Amino acid sequence: MSLVTMRELLQDARKRKYAVGGFNVFNFETLSAVMEVAEELKTPLVLGIPERLFKFVDVDTLSAAMVRAAQKASVPVALHLDHGHTYEGVLKAIRWGFTSVMFDGSALPLAENLKRTKDITRIAHTLGISVEGELGYVGFNDSKTDIKEDNIVTPDIAAEFVDKTKIDALAVAVGNNHGAYRGSPKLNFSRLSELNQAVNVPLVMHGGSRLSREEYRNSIVSGISKINIATDMSQAASDTLKAELLKSPNANYIHLMTVVKKGVKDSVRKYMLAFECISKAV
């Protein structure tokens, strides 16, 4: 099993109607937490790190650990650069040995997004690396902008984008929101189904934290093959740490790391169960 491309994982997920979890890690504890749950539940896995984290962590060391963990795994793992915004970030991930990169040009004018995504796909495909692109406005938990109809991707634009860029997966905006949701999310499942019919690649949901089990099922049925989780893992780590310090204010750091890791594992397990990817590692 071990290290595979994201294209391989998502094509199977699309065919068999489940979603692969795209879990972003930010240190060794979260890396081992995600890997251990994937092994336990026998799930395929997209293991990622976003480019924005490069300035906060020693990514050269962490990426090497991610590669090693994937190579040792008994389940298929794709290593993924999440939300790459620069050519430099994408090339770093390629040099590290990642099997998948995302170029997020969704904030750019459509023509510029298409051009840059196409250029990156051409380079990545030459090296056997999968590419994810993004279209539409996916909000943030602290954004002042409401998600309106104008921000939601249309099938004709999605079809043209996929055809011209040759990407392997497309992240789409259908009312989803990065970070913690303010109020209840309003996902446009009918638009999602239209997008799935319009393109020939798996669709990706960003901002997948804390939806209901029914919303995950409806998303998968409507065409989503990968759901990204990052916010809730981080929140689980901090909530677990706070609770443990209240209970044991003199706890040593090694004990705290162990407790935090368990909290992250519980969060990851909950999502993998909701994504219906259990025992899909074949």
TrEMBL record:
Pfam families in the record: F_bP_aldolase
Cofactor(s) listed: Zn(2+)
Signal sequence, renumbered to the chain: none
Superkingdom of this protein's organism: Bacteria
Gene3D superfamilies according to UniProt: Aldolase class I (3.20.20.70)
NCBIfam families: cbbA
Protein name, as recorded: Class II fructose-bisphosphate aldolase family protein
Organism for this UniProt entry: Anaeroselena agilis
